[in-house]
Design a protein that fits this description.
The chain has 205 residues and is mainly alpha-helical. The chain contains 5 helices and 2 strands. Strands 1-2 form a two-stranded antiparallel ribbon. The longest helix is centred in the C-terminal third of the chain and has 40 residues. The chain starts with a helix and ends in a 24-residue tail after the last helix. Keywords: Cell membrane, Glycoprotein, Membrane, Transmembrane, Transmembrane helix.
Length: 205
């Protein structure tokens, strides 16, 4: 029962991670955030592999999934630091999320709850293929929406890491015990066979 409960809980966590990653992938595509798009794709693949390992009792897949979650926590921690501009990070100077290929920001910058977007006409600050806007009235700034999204990803990853380690340990113990039970074959044990020799008895008349 314990193993079944652990597997079911891990599958629920993986499902939540998959939904959260797909939702995040959609908004990153809308904002042309190429670095998060690549990271989200790798995360989705790792979560699917973790779900496959949970269903098929493959503890090596779960180990890979757990290792990826450590990387995923580090990536989301970096995103939090980036949007809060911790240290020398600056959103106005560093366009890391787009690989420095464009000036696009988060999709939530213009479409956040309550945000009012006003275009600035005849601005000399904008390149030829961009426009300058002012955003006001937001109930929650886009930085904090991105930080909240990353915090949810970290929380799910921590739960997933704990349960992946637990379930993989259970799978490994079951595999070791199965090998021990089948270990008698290595001693060349064979069941007794019936003798094919016939014993001749004298016939008296």
């Amino acid at each position: 029962m314990g193993k079944c409960d652990g597997r079911c809980t891990l599958l629920v966590i993986c499902s939540l991670q998959l939904v959260a990653a797909l939702q995040r992938q959609v908004f990153d595509f809308l904002g042309y955030q190429w670095a998060p798009i690549l990271a989200n794709f790798l995360h989705i693949m790792a979560v699917i592999l973790g779900m496959f390992g949970t269903v098929q009792f493959r503890f090596r897949y779960l180990i890979f999934y757990a290792v990826w979650l450590v990387i995923w926590v580090g990536w989301n921690s970096f995103i939090i630091c980036f949007y809060l501009e911790v240290g020398n990070l600056s959103q106005d100077r560093d366009f890391l999320m787009t690989f420095n290929t464009s000036l696009h920001r988060s999709w939530w910058m213009e479409h956040g709850p309550g945000c009012l977007v006003t275009p600035v006409l005849d601005s000399r600050m904008a390149p030829d293929d961009h426009h300058v806007i002012t955003v006001s009235g937001c109930l929650l700034d886009y930085q904090y929406i991105e930080v909240l999204s990353s915090a949810i990803q970290i929380l799910l990853a921590l739960f997933g890491f704990v349960y992946a380690c637990y379930v993989s340990k259970v799978f490994q113990d079951d595999e070791d015990s199965f090998d021990f039970i089948g270990g008698f074959d290595s001693y060349g044990y064979q069941p007794p066979q019936k003798s094919s020799h016939l014993q001749l008895q004298p016939l008296y008349t």
